[in-house]
Amino acid sequence: MTAPHGRGLLHLAAALDQQTAFDAASYVEPAQLAERGGLDFVTLGDTFARPGPDALAVLSRLAPATRRIGLVPTVTITHTEPFHVQAAVATLDWVSRGRAGWQLDVSTTEGEARLFGRRHAAPADALWREAGEIAEVAARLWDSWEDDAEIRDEATGRFIDREKLHHVDFRGATFFVKGPSIVPRPPQGHPVRVVDATEGPARRVAARYADVALVRVAGPAQARAVRTELRDAAAEFGRNPDALRVLGSLVVDLGDGERAAEPGHGGGGPRQSAQGPLYRGGPVDLAELITAWHASEAVDGFHLTPVEPRRDLERLVNGTVALLQHRGLFRTFYPGSTLREHLGLARPANQYAVTGADAGAVPGAVKGGAS
């Protein structure tokens, strides 16, 4: 299906962040509301800089309470073992049946570093280079099990064909991982990688590894320039630029009733605030802004963070999204079951199966399980 102006359909996502919510159950209803609106995915932020529940654990709790919507926690990969990170994200993909993503983030402050006591804080450039290496090793570990590695042959007692398990033998600047993973290859092959590409140090990682890049800019011209830069850089890395989705990130305050957007917040673009680009107005004018940015090829869609989570998400789904659906700009149902399908992204081929990397295969056969 193609939007009336000739571009593909919009991609829409929403944040579930609630500053004072520590009970995972409080996130269920908003996620189900977003799913009723057909949104591609929901995000849940996380940081070592303030108290809060573990985003990945919370979204694992939401997996059985939802059926189609993608689940994307922020995963801070500084100070965290890459092997454990990829296993946790792969597990979320399994429990959600192919709806997992992860937003890569780094930890830059000395206070956060002291929580772990392993090393001092590092410059953002170095941390994002490390983040790229973690994105790379995660993909290799997800591929370290070929899709048909599990035999489960009770008659012979063989659970795994170890010729289809592979050592990744990855050495980064700050870590080394041998592999293979302890979790079979995820349903999506690679869970969707999301990177906030607003700041320079993260942009190169987004261009090389991200499936979805978020950009916090206040106008369509800025957004279009960043999108073009990301797509050009992706091509330089040998990627198909059409496999990268660039979403504008806005904070939205939809108020208590329909009203015209405040000056500076309407179709001409939102204004910058301490929280990022902020739209303050009604659902109808927000639909106009989204339509205009998308038609001008500034973005492929939007990631929206409600100021008042319950109020604004309801007005977003029942107002803005409903209007975009009526105009034929956004889906009215999920055509597939995985987050990659929602985003129109192919399931990646297994790099070891494709290349026949037998040299990395784990020799022998396993009885009863992997060890």
Key traits:
371 residues, alpha/beta, eight-stranded parallel barrel, three-stranded antiparallel sheet, 14 strands, globular, disordered C terminus
Task: Explain what you see.
The protein contains 11 helices and 14 strands. Helix 1 packs parallel to helix 9 (309-326), helix 6 crosses helix 7 (220-236) and helix 8 (283-295) crosses helix 9 (309-326). It is of the alpha/beta class and 371 residues long. The chain has helices at residues 28-36, 55-62, 82-95, 110-116, 124-143, 200-209, 220-236, 283-295, 309-326, 339-343, 351-355, and strands spanning 11-15, 41-44, 70-76, 101-105, 150-153, 158-160, 170-171, 176-177, 192-196, 212-215, 245-253, 278-280, 301-306, 366-367. Helix 2 links the parallel strand 2 and strand 3 (70-76). An 8-stranded parallel barrel has the order 1-2-3-4-9-10-11-13, surrounded by 8 helices. A 3-stranded antiparallel beta sheet has the order 5-6-14, with no helix packed on it. Strands 7-8 form a two-stranded antiparallel ribbon. The longest helix has 20 residues, at 124-143. It starts with 10 loop residues before the first strand and ends with a strand.
Report the sheet-strand fraction: 15-25%
The outline comes out as globular
Low-confidence stretches are 363-371
Cα(first) to Cα(last) distance is 47 Å
Number of helices: 11
How large, in whole angstroms, is the Cα Rg? 21 Å
Number of strands: 14
What is the ordering of alpha helices and beta strands? EHEHEHEHHEEEEEHEHEEHEHHHE
Give the biggest beta sheet: 8 strands, parallel, barrel
